[in-house]
Write a structure and sequence with these properties.
77 residues
C-alpha cells in the first residue's frame, strides 16, 4: 500500500508540473520541470517496471529541496 501511495504522490506532482505554463517554467528555471514530468510519465506508462530504490531516493533526497523551492516561489508571488 505504501508503494502505491508513493507512486501516486510522484504522479500527482508530475501532473501538476505539466500544467505549469511554459512561461512559468521559464520564469522558474531552477525547478527541474522536464525531469519531474518525465518521472511522472515513466511511472504512468512503465508501472510494471518501477525502480523502488529510485522512487525512494527521489522522495527522500529530491523532494524536500523541491518543496522548499516551490514554497519560496509561492511566498514571492
Amino acid at each position: 500500500m505504501l508503494e502505491l501511495a508513493l507512486v501516486r504522490l510522484i504522479e500527482i506532482i508530475g501532473e501538476a508540473a505539466g500544467r505549469v505554463s511554459q512561461e512559468g517554467q521559464n520564469k522558474h528555471s531552477s525547478i527541474p520541470w522536464f525531469q519531474i514530468i518525465g518521472m511522472r510519465n515513466r511511472l504512468i506508462h512503465g508501472y510494471d517496471q518501477v525502480d523502488l530504490n529510485l522512487l525512494w531516493d527521489t522522495i527522500e533526497i529530491d523532494l524536500p529541496p523541491l518543496i522548499s523551492k516551490l514554497e519560496n516561489i509561492l511566498d514571492q508571488e
